[in-house]
Recover the amino acids of this structure.
C-alpha cells in the first residue's frame, strides 16, 4: 500500500519577473514502510519535493496524497494536523525552539497533541522523550538550551523530535550533514530499526554515500524531473 | 496552556530589551491612566458633592413653557417661567418612590436699584431657608449677621455679590444692626471709609414674564458665602419666598388669602383693568432717571402673613434621588409621571447649563488626553511587537512545521503581551495609585474657577476606588489586545515554508 502518492506534480516559484519551475511533472509512489533516498544536484528540486510530501508546501499543479488523503484540498488546520500526527520533519538546519531546553524541544510535538486519540499523559511524554534523547546520545544534555549545544548535537535533537510522535513518515533533508560518521551511523541505525519495527516510512534527501547504503530505493532527480529510480 | 505560558515567559526574558521598551510604555501609560482616572473620579465626586448635593439635586423640574433647560445660570434678562399647577406636580413628586426629597424654589434675576439710577443685577433664589439648608447640607455659611428665621421676610446677600454691588453701585450692604467690619471692606471702600454709604436693605426690581415690574425693599439679615464652589454660586442671594414672589409679581400667599367681595369680583371680571390699577400697585420709574428708593417701598408685609398658605408660585423644583437611582432613568420616569402636569423634568446637568457643560468639556479633554496616551502606547507597543514577530519568523515557522496551529502561535504571542501588560501595567497602576494618594495628601487648593471645576471643588481631591481599578484593568486589557492584534496577524501569516526558506 502506498502511503505517499504524487501524480503530475508541478511547482513554480516566482523569482522577480520570471518563474522558476522547481518541479515539472513528478510522479512518485512510496509504499508504507519504505526507505527511500532522493538524490540530485543542488537546485534539482529535492527540497521542494520533500516540502510537498511534508505538507509544508502545496503544488502548483498535480495531486499529493498522504495515507490516501489528498492534501491539495486540505485547509491550513488539516495540513497542520497532518504534519503533527503523520509526518516527522528533520530540517537541513536545526530549527529548535531557542527558549526550550533539549528535553522540552523533543517533547514539544507531543505537547501539541490535544485530541483524545493521541493525547498522552505528561509522564508518558517525558518518558518517551527521555528514551529518544538517550538513543541519540544526549542524555547528559537534557536541560541544555539549543544555544549551549554543538551543531551535531542540535541535529540529533531535531531527529529525536521528528521521531518522538511515532509518525507514519519521516522526512529528512540532509540528516547527517552535521554529524560525524560514527554518530551518523548510530542515527541511521536507529531509523532503520524504527523502519523495520514500526513500519515508519523514511524519505531522505542526501548526498552522503553512507546514507545511500541504507536506502532500499533511490530516486534521482534533475531539473525538476525524476530521471531514474534504483532499487538498492 | 502551561506550554504556551512557559514559552511566552522565556521569550520575554530572551528579548529583554524589547520587553523593557514595551514595559516602560505600559508602565507610564498605566500610571498616567490611573492618575487621569483618579482625577476624573475626584472631579465626578467633587461635582456631585458641590453641585448635586449642595445646589441642584440630581433632577430639576421646570415649567413646560420654559424654553431653555439651563435655569441655574441664565442669560441676562431671560425670565424663568412659573410652574403652573404646582399642587399637581407636588402630588406626583410625593408618589415617586425613587425620590428622596425635593424643594420648590423661586429662581430669577432682579435689578438692584439705588437713587442715582445705577442699576445692577443679581440672582435670587426664593426659598424657605431652613428647608433649603436642610436639603443642601448647610451649604450656605454665615459671614455676618444671621440666617433667615422661619417665616421671616428678608434677604441673605452673598459676600461676592456685596462686593460687586459696591463696585457697581457704590453702596455697602450690611446686615441689620451689624456694624461694618473693616476687614471685610474692599480697598476702594476703605479709601472712603468716612463717607461710605452703608445700607441695611436692598431695593430689588424683578421682571415677570409679562415684563411688568415691582420694586421691593428687602431687609438684609445676613451676609453669607457658599461652602462649596462659592466662586460659581456667589451671585445667588437667598430671599424668602413671599418677597421673591412680590418682586416677580407672582401670586403671593397673602394674595391667595384675599377674598374679594362681589363688586370687586365684577371689576376683576371686566376687561377695564386700568381701573383696577388706578392705585399705586405697580411703581413707576422716575422719568428723570433717578429712583426715590425709600418712597418705592409700599408694603412691609410679613411672610408670616402667609402662614399655612402656599400660593404654589414656584419656577424650579430641586429633587434629590434615593441612593443608587440612575439620574437618566429617574428623569425618564418622572417625565412620564409629569405628563399631564405643567411641569417637566430635566437632569441637573441640563439645569446647571454652562457650569455642567464646562465641567463636561474639562472632563472630555482630560479623558481625551488619557485616550491619546493610550493611542500612542498602542502604536509603539504594536510596532515593537511586530518587529519582534518578524525577527522570529524562523522560530514561529518551525513551530508551525512541526504541528503548531495558528491559534497556538496567537495564544503564545498574546500571552507574552499580557504578561508584560500585567507586570508593567500593574506596576504602573500601583504607582498611579500612590501618586493619587500623594496628591490627595497635599490638599492642593485653587481659586481658579476652571480648576475648581476640574477639582470638583476648591480642593484637588483625586480619588480611586475599586471600580476605578477595575476600569483601569479593563482599559489596560483593551490596550493590550488592540496593540497585539496586528502583530498577531503578522505571526498567523508566517508559514512553515518561510521558516525553511529563511534558513
Amino acid at each position: 500500500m502506498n502511503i505517499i502518492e504524487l501524480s503530475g506534480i508541478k511547482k513554480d516559484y516566482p523569482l522577480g519577473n520570471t518563474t522558476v519551475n522547481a518541479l515539472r511533472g513528478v510522479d512518485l509512489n512510496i509504499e508504507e514502510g519504505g526507505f527511500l533516498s532522493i538524490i540530485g544536484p543542488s537546485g534539482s528540486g529535492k527540497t521542494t519535493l520533500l516540502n510537498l510530501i511534508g505538507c509544508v508546501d502545496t503544488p502548483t499543479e498535480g495531486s499529493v496524497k498522504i495515507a490516501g488523503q489528498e492534501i491539495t484540498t486540505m485547509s491550513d488546520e488539516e495540513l497542520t494536523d497532518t504534519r503533527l500526527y503523520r509526518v516527522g520533519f528533520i530540517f537541513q538546519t536545526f530549527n529548535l525552539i531557542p527558549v526550550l531546553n533539549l528535553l522540552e524541544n523533543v517533547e514539544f510535538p507531543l505537547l501539541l497533541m490535544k485530541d483524545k486519540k493521541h493525547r498522552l499523559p505528561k509522564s508518558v511524554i517525558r518518558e518517551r522523550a527521555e528514551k529518544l534523547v538517550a538513543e541519540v546520545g544526549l542524555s547528559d544534555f537534557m536541560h541544555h538550551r539549543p544555544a549551549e549545544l554543538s551543531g551535531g548535537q542540535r541535529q540529533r535533537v531535531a531527529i529525536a523530535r521528528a521521531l518522538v510522535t511515532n509518525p507514519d513518515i519521516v522526512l529528512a533533508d540532509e540528516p547527517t550533514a552535521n554529524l560525524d560518521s560514527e554518530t551518523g551511523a548510530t542515527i541511521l541505525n536507529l531509523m532503520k530499526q524504527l523502519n523495520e519495527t514500526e513500519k515508519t516510512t523514511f524519505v531522505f534527501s542526501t548526498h552522503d554515500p553512507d546514507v545511500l547504503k541504507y536506502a532500499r530505493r533511490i530516486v534521482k532527480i534533475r531539473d525538476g524531473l525524476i530521471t531514474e529510480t534504483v532499487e538498492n | 496552556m502551561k506550554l504556551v505560558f512557559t514559552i511566552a515567559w522565556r521569550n520575554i526574558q530572551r528579548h529583554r530589551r524589547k520587553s523593557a521598551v514595551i514595559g516602560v510604555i505600559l508602565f507610564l501609560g498605566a500610571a498616567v491612566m490611573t492618575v487621569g482616572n483618579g482625577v476624573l473620579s475626584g472631579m465626578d465626586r467633587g461635582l456631585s458633592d458641590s453641585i448635586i448635593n449642595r445646589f441642584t439635586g440630581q433632577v430639576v423640574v421646570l415649567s413646560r413653557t420654559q424654553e431653555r433647560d439651563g435655569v441655574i445660570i441664565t442669560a441676562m434678562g431671560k425670565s424663568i417661567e412659573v410652574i403652573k399647577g404646582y399642587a399637581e406636580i407636588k402630588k406626583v413628586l410625593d408618589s415617586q418612590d425613587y425620590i428622596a426629597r425635593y424643594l420648590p424654589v423661586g429662581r430669577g434675576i432682579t435689578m438692584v436699584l439705588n437713587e442715582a439710577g445705577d442699576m445692577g443685577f443679581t440672582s435670587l433664589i426664593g426659598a424657605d431657608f431652613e428647608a433649603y439648608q436642610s436639603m443642601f447640607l448647610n451649604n450656605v455659611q454665615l459671614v455676618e449677621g444671621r440666617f433667615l428665621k422661619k417665616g421671616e421676610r428678608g434677604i441673605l446677600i452673598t459676600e461676592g455679590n456685596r462686593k460687586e454691588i459696591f463696585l457697581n453701585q457704590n453702596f455697602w450692604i450690611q446686615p441689620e444692626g451689624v456694624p461694618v467690619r473693616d476687614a471685610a471692606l474692599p480697598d476702594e471702600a476703605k479709601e472712603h471709609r468716612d463717607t461710605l454709604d452703608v445700607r441695611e436693605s436692598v431695593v430689588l426690581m424683578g421682571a415677570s414674564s409679562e415684563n411688568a415690574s415691582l420694586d421691593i425693599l428687602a431687609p438684609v439679615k445676613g451676609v453669607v458665602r457658599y461652602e462649596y464652589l462659592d466662586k460659581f454660586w456667589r451671585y445667588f442671594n437667598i430671599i424668602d419666598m413671599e418677597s421673591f414672589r412680590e418682586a416677580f409679581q407672582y401670586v403671593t400667599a397673602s394674595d391667595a388669602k384675599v377674598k374679594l367681595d362681589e363688586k370687586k369680583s365684577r371689576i376683576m371680571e371686566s376687561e377695564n383693568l386700568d381701573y383696577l390699577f388706578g392705585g399705586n400697585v405697580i411703581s413707576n420709574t422716575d422719568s428723570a432717571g433717578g429712583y426715590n428708593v425709600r418712597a418705592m417701598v409700599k408694603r412691609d408685609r410679613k411672610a408670616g402673613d402667609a402662614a399655612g398658605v402656599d400660593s404654589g408660585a414656584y419656577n424650579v423644583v430641586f429633587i434629590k434621588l434615593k441612593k443608587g437611582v440612575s439620574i437618566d432613568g429617574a428623569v425618564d420616569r418622572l417625565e412620564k409621571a409629569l405628563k399631564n402636569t405643567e411641569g417637566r423634568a430635566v437632569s441637573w446637568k441640563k439645569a446647571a447649563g454652562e457650569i455642567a457643560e464646562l465641567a463636561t468639556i474639562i472632563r472630555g479633554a482630560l479623558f481625551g488626553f488619557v485616550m491619546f496616551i493610550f493611542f500612542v502606547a498602542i502604536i509603539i507597543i504594536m510596532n515593537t511587537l511586530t518587529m519582534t514577530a518578524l525577527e522570529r519568523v524562523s522560530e514561529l515557522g518551525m513551530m508551525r512545521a512541526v504541528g503548531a496551529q495558528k491559534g497556538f502561535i496567537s495564544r503564545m504571542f498574546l500571552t507574552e503581551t499580557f504578561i508584560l501588560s500585567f507586570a508593567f501595567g500593574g506596576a504602573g497602576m500601583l504607582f498611579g495609585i500612590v501618586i493619587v494618594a500623594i496628591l490627595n495628601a497635599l490638599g492642593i487648593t485653587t481659586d481658579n474657577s476652571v480648576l475648581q471645576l476640574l477639582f470638583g471643588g476648591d480642593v484637588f481631591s483625586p480619588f480611586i476606588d475599586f471600580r476605578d481599578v477595575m476600569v483601569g484593568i479593563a482599559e489596560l486589557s483593551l490596550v493590550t489586545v488592540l496593540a497585539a492584534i496586528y502583530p498577531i496577524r503578522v505571526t498567523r501569516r508566517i508559514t512553515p515554508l518561510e521558516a525553511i526558506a529563511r534558513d
